[in-house]
Specification:
Length: 109
C-alpha cells in the first residue's frame, strides 16, 4: 500500500498497535485535515482497555497526528494527577514511543 503522497508503507508488523486503511467515506483528522475516500488513514487498533475510549472511531491523517494526539492527551492527564490518569499516561507514553519507532522506520532513520 502507498501513502497519499505515493510513498510505500511497510507491511504492518503483528505487534504494532497501528493500522492503515484506505478510507471508504470522508473522515476528518484531529488536525482538521479531511481524508477523502480512497486516501490512507491511520488507526490505533491495539490498546489497553483504559485507553480505548480515547482512540475509538478516530482516523488520523498521519503518524505525526497520532503523536500529537498522544501528547495533547498526556498534558490533560498530567494535570489530573489521579491513579487512573497515571495509568492512562503510562499507556500513552508507551504508545508514543511505538509511534516514534514506526516513524523512524518509515522515514528510513
Amino acid at each position: 500500500m502507498t501513502s497519499n503522497d505515493g510513498r510505500p508503507f511497510p507491511s504492518r508488523p503483528e505487534e504494532s498497535p497501528l493500522s492503515w486503511k484506505r478510507v471508504t467515506r470522508r473522515e476528518q483528522c484531529r488536525c482538521g485535515t479531511r481524508i477523502a475516500p480512497g486516501e490512507v488513514g491511520f488507526e490505533v487498533i491495539t490498546l489497553p482497555e483504559d485507553l480505548e475510549h480515547l482512540f475509538r472511531g478516530r482516523t488520523f491523517c498521519s503518524l505525526r497526528c497520532i503523536s500529537a494526539y498522544c501528547l495533547e492527551s498526556l498534558e490533560i492527564l498530567d494535570a489530573l494527577d489521579t491513579p487512573e490518569a497515571r495509568a492512562m499516561a503510562a499507556g500513552l507514553h508507551e504508545l508514543s514511543h511505538e509511534v516514534a519507532e514506526i516513524q523512524g522506520k518509515v522515514s528510513g532513520r
